[in-house]
Amino acid sequence: MSQPIPNTPERQSIHGQWSSRWTFILAATGAAVGLGNIWKFPYLTGEHGGSAFVLVYMLCVAALGIPMMMAEVMLGRRGRQSPVNTMQTLAEETGGSQWWQIIGWSGTVAGVLILSYYSVIGGWTIAYVFKSAGGLFHGATAEGAQQLFEDFVSSPWIVFFWHSFFMVMTMVVVARGVKSGLEKAVQFLMPALFVLLLMVMGYSMTTGYFSKSLAFLFTPDFSRLSGTSMLTAMGQAFFSLSLGMGTIMIYGSYVPKGTSIAGTSCAIAGADTAVALIAGMAIFPIVFANGMEPGAGPSLIFQTLPVAFGQMTGGLVFGVLFFVLLLVAAWTSSISLIEPAVTLLIERFAMTRAAASFWCGVLTWLLGLGTIFSFNIWSGTTLFNMTFFGLLDFLTSNLMLPLGGILIAVFAGWIMTQDSSQSELNITNPRGYKAWILLIRFIAPIAVLIVLLHAVGFL
Fold it and tell me: Which CATH code for domain 21-455?
């Protein structure tokens, strides 16, 4: 193994630093918590054995998610730059190949591609806040709600407006920088997210179906656990924490030196899981009370729940609260997705943050048009039997993120010297560090490879 460059100087990020450990936890949790937490994880829990699946998921988080998050935060804090330049610097520090920059490029590009379609869906949530407030769901039937959604996404100019609105919201926050933008946003938005969740859950307790939802989510049924359940839990543990896309690495570059990487990674993983489970307790009583299918997937949000809100007492208020909740979840994720690209432009081209944010925003906004058109004027145009939106989702979720995760684990475990990683992680218990090395060298890369093979259909 190559030796580190002696007397490596303590680096400082030119972009700023989180004011506290708590702020970093809020920011990274905001990056991890997204639209998928609101519907996907609770549904997977119910379908795969309730608390039996939660137990398997938590084991996967412990063996895969947390060690991977620790590795990303560690690399980010040691490099103190954009993911691309961080990996270039750390490769030089270890005497490794400059090809390791591909980790940074993959994450940065994936973030831009994901935000390009995430912004479109974020725009949908804004539109649905106003649709709900305007009483459009009152008395709606299942067919009516479906038609409302189809009419909405088939109108490119309307979706174009809300996509543009959401991108402006995102880039205004990012342009203001770490302290005035990202930090202030997450300090307000993340507590708001929890309050909104608890408010909706409070209403759900009055529906008469709260106990049924608890049974759906938490009754252990080990007979329903299968090989597919294990792969699902493993994949969810990886994707739910936003690993492999550069967001955790760039947020890690803003972490103060004395902050415990292990402790904060555990706190973030716990908060992310808590949000997903509370979301299930908030949503499923409403679903069950209206005789609806909990496994409806994304259509649950934009087609099934509007019918429930239109029929229940106080549905207008709680419908608005729910879509505001979705908007907050989408917003906190979106600002993290574009941050790696913005910091790269600042470092490589000496741009101001405002200029870098503008150009990254414009590029992402333009790419988003492809997703908008996938639901209307390009709906019949496919490549590899996928629409533009489907292709972006496949490339990022099934290929780029798992490959990035594997490379991060290999670099942190095998290329970076143990002196460097132990110094940066500052794990005082030798057994704790040895456990991390074992997990990041062997368990994590093999597990993510299995996730990759499952995602592309080989398992």
Answer: 1.10.4160
Return d(Cα 10, Cα 91) in angstroms, integer: 16
Q: Which two tokens stand for residue 170?
A: 């995102």
DSSP letter at 312 equals S
290: helix, strand or coil: coil
List, for residues 295-354, the tens digit of each pLDDT value: 766 777 898 889 889 988 888 999 999 999 999 999 999 999 999 999 999 999 999 999
Residue found by looking up tokens 């007979």 in the block: 223
State the amino acid at position 12 in one-letter form.
Answer: Q
Q: What are the angstrom distances between the C-alpha of 39 and each of 35, 56, 197, 330, 333?
A: 7, 19, 13, 13, 16
Q: Do residues 184 and 190 lie in contact, with contact meaning Cβ atoms separated by under 8 Å? A: no
Q: How confident is the model at residue 181 (pLDDT cuts 50, 70, 90)?
A: very high
Contacts of 416 (CB under 8 A, 6+ apart): 75, 90, 94
> For the whole model, what pTM was predicted?
0.95
- Amino acid symbol at 61: V
For residue 428, what pLDDT is reported?
86
CA proximity to 196, closest of 318, 313, 310:
318
Which tens digit of pLDDT belongs to each residue from 124-165?
999 999 999 999 999 888 899 999 999 999 999 999 999 999
Q: Where are the domains of the chain?
A: 21-455
The full length of the chain comes to 459
Torsion-angle region of 43 (φ positive above 0: left; ψ -120 to 50: alpha; else: beta): alpha
Alpha-carbon distances, residue 219 vs 37, 207, 249, 281 (angstroms):
20, 20, 36, 13
At 235, the amino acid letter reads G
